[in-house]
Fold this sequence. Notes:
The chain is built from 23 helices and ten strands. It has 491 residues and is α+β, with helices and mostly antiparallel strands.
Amino acid sequence: MFEELLRKALGFIKYKKNASYVEIFDELIKECKKSFTEKEIVLIKKAYLMARDLHKGQKRNSGEPYIIHPVYVAYILLYEMNLHDANSIAAAILHDTREDCGITYEYLVKHFNNDVANLVEGVTKMKDLDFSTKAEKEEFNNYLLLKHILQDYRVIYIKLADRLHNMRTLDYKSEVKRREKSAESLRIFAPLATHVGAMNARDELVDTSFKYLNNRSYRIMNGMRKDYEIKHQEDIEDKLSSFKNILSDLGITLDVRPVILSNFAIYQGLISTQKISLLPNLVSFNIMVDGIEQIDLVVKRIKESYNVLPEYTCDFISKPRSNGYQAIHLSILGHKQVPYQVKIYTKEMFLVNTYGFAALLDIYPEKNILDIQADLIQNNSFFKTLSRNYKAYKEPFKLIDRTVRELLADKINVSVANGAMYCLPAVSVVADLADKIHSNLKKEATGALVNGELVGLDFPLKNGDNVVILTRNLELESIKDTVSLKLVLEK
C-alpha cells in the first residue's frame, strides 16, 4: 500500500478522465477494496445508490447526469488526495444532497451515521440565506466552512476535491462564473489547501485559477517556462547525472528528479524586469532517501561537491512548517551561475509534503483521525489563531476579512498612485486591494491599471505591482499615463 501511494504521489499513476459516472464509480470501488473493509464498502455503495436516485434528472452544464460530479469528487478525494476514510468518501458522494435535494441532517444520521452527516453538513452551502448581495452570501458560506474545518480537517479535503472537479469543468460555465470561482479559489481554497498540507491540490488550484483570471500572463509564463526547459534541458540533465554520480557510493536508495515551478509561482516570483533564470527556486532537484539518518550523508556530500549558497539554506526538519512540511533546502550554482534548489527528504516526509493530513492517516494507522488533527492544530499557527479569532469575532464578515487578510497566505507589497504601500496576502486580487484601502472604494471600483495595463477587479496581484484603482467617478488627474487613460476613456 505504501509503495503504491508513493508511485501515485510521484505521478506514475494517472487520473482517469473522460469516463462515465458508472466507470468512475467502478474505479472508485476498486480503490476502496485496497484499504476498506467490506462493511465500509457497503456504506459507500449505499451512499452512491442514494445520491444517484436523489440527483436523478439533474444535469450539469456539460449536459452530463449530475451524479457524475459527486462520484468524481469521491474519486479525487480517495485516489488523488489520498484520504483513506470510508465516511469521508460516503460524505463526498452525498455532499450535494442537503443543498440540492432537500435531504435533512437527521435523515443522514438515520441512514448512515453521525460522522457522515456531520461531514455533509460541513460542506453544505446554505441557499436560503437572506443577504443583500450574492457576494455577502458566499462570504457567509465561507464563514460556515471555516467553522466546520475547526471541528474536522476532513471537511476541507472534501471541499477541495469538490472545487478541483468544478475547476476542471469550468469551460462549461460563463466567463463571469469562471472568474468568480477562480478568484475565490485563489483567495480561500488554495491557502486552506496549503495550511492542511494538500499541496498537490493547491498547485492545481492556483495554476487553473491563474489561467482563467489572467490568461495573457498565464500564457506568457507558460511560454517562458517551456523556453527555459528547452534551453537548459542539457544542463539540467547533466546536473541530474552529477547528483547520481556523487551520491552513488553512499550505498543508499535514492530517487532524484528535477521539478520546475508552476506558472503562477513564476508570475509571483518575477518583480519588474527580473529574469526567470534568477529565481532561486525555479528548478528544484528533489532527492528522496529511505531514512532520516541518510539525509545527513546526502547533505554532507552535496556541500563537499558544490558551491552551496548559505542564504538559501533552510532546515525544515528540525523546524517543520506549520502544515507538517519537512525537508532540507539547499541552493547550488548551475549553468552560468544560475541557482538551483535542492530538497532532501524521506519517503514519509514526501508523502506528508504532498498530501498533508491525509498522508498521516496511512503513516500512523494506529492513531485516531481526530487525535491526528488535534496534534496538527497544536503545531499549526493558522488554525490556532483562527480558533482564537472565531471566539473573538462574533460578526462572520469580520472573521472572514481578518482570516483572509492576515492568516491565509504569505504577503506581497503593492503601491498605489499616491506612492502609498499596502501589504496583502500573496493570492490577492485588485478587489482585495480596493477593500484594504477603503470598504467604499471596493463598491465603487470598476477596474484598475496594474503597471499601466487595464485589468478587472479579479486580476491577481504580485509583489511590486503599481496599481491605480478606477471608479465610476474617475479622477482623471490621478492617472498620469496618457495611453492608459485613453484606454480607460474608450472603455
